[in-house]
Automatic annotation (TrEMBL):
It catalyses: an acyl phosphate + sn-glycerol 3-phosphate = a 1-acyl-sn-glycero-3-phosphate + phosphate. It comes from Ruminococcus albus (strain ATCC 27210 / DSM 20455 / JCM 14654 / NCDO 2250 / 7). The lineage of its organism: Bacteria, Bacillati, Bacillota, Clostridia, Eubacteriales. This is Glycerol-3-phosphate acyltransferase. The chain crosses the membrane at residues 6-29, 92-113, 119-146, 153-173, 179-197. It is found in: Cell membrane. GO terms for biological process: phospholipid biosynthetic process. Its EC number is 2.3.1.275.
Length: 220
């Protein structure tokens, strides 16, 4: 039953994640592929930069729903219908769902494994899994975005902060001894995924050519 629970969570979350909100919204709204414009990234920031607030809001709402649906459905099926618990902790199956919905979003099987960075999806999914830990990381994101106006800087450092806050809160607030290591490892894997998808942003930051939040992409 445990193996079946993991298989269901992985497959359901990955397939749901593969439904890229930015690509679908821009196809329906503008009859264009967002991956051909701006930074060529199929994510919210690029939709906002290229098409403006309307399509960006639609993308935001779809991604908000996608992350929450993955966590809620997997928890419902695994914990309530299958009666399975991992490490005596309700967070683990949510982390597993979150990791694979992000992998589906970043490497969607329906779009040749080319998707978005998954930062927005990570935020909403992690908020559904563990609101307190996620809010701590979002504070880091907000402070750095306000200070630098670089979305990428806020995203990278918030992703680094997340497993750190996970470890601290699991130890000293939740006191879930069995779940500390598994949940922290899941947080680290999500952190690694987010940072690895920001390699181009890191290069542009080093070269001084990264666009700031709200700034139109400069024409060559």
């Amino acid at each position: 039953m445990n193996a079946l629970a993991i298989i269901f969570t992985v497959l359901f979350s990955y397939i749901l994640g593969s439904l890229n909100s930015a690509i679908i919204v821009c196809r329906l709204w503008k009859k264009q592929d967002i991956r051909d414009y701006g930074s060529k990234n199929a994510g919210l920031t690029n939709v906002l930069r290229v098409y403006g607030k309307g399509p960006a809001l639609a993308t935001l709402l779809c991604d908000l729903a996608k992350g929450v649906i993955a966590v809620v459905v997997c928890r419902l099926v695994v914990h309530k219908l299958m009666g399975v618990e991992f490490f005596d902790d309700p967070h683990f199956i949510g982390y597993l769902a979150g990791l694979f919905v992000m992998l589906g979003h970043c490497f969607p099987i329906f779009y040749g494994f080319h998707g978005g960075k998954g930062v927005l999806l990570a935020a909403t999914t992690l908020l559904a899994i563990d609101p307190l830990t996620c809010l701590c990381a979002l504070v880091v994101f907000g402070v750095l975005l306000a200070a630098t106006r670089y979305v990428s800087v806020g995203s990278i450092f918030a992703s680094i902060a997340y497993p750190t806050f996970t470890f601290i809160l699991q130890n000293f607030v939740y006191k879930d001894d069995y779940a500390v290591i598994p949940n922290t490892i899941m947080g680290v894997l999500i952190c690694i995924l987010i940072i690895s998808l920001h390699h181009a942003n890191i290069k542009r930051l080093m070269n001084g050519t990264e666009n700031k939040f709200g700034q139109k992409k400069k024409e060559a």
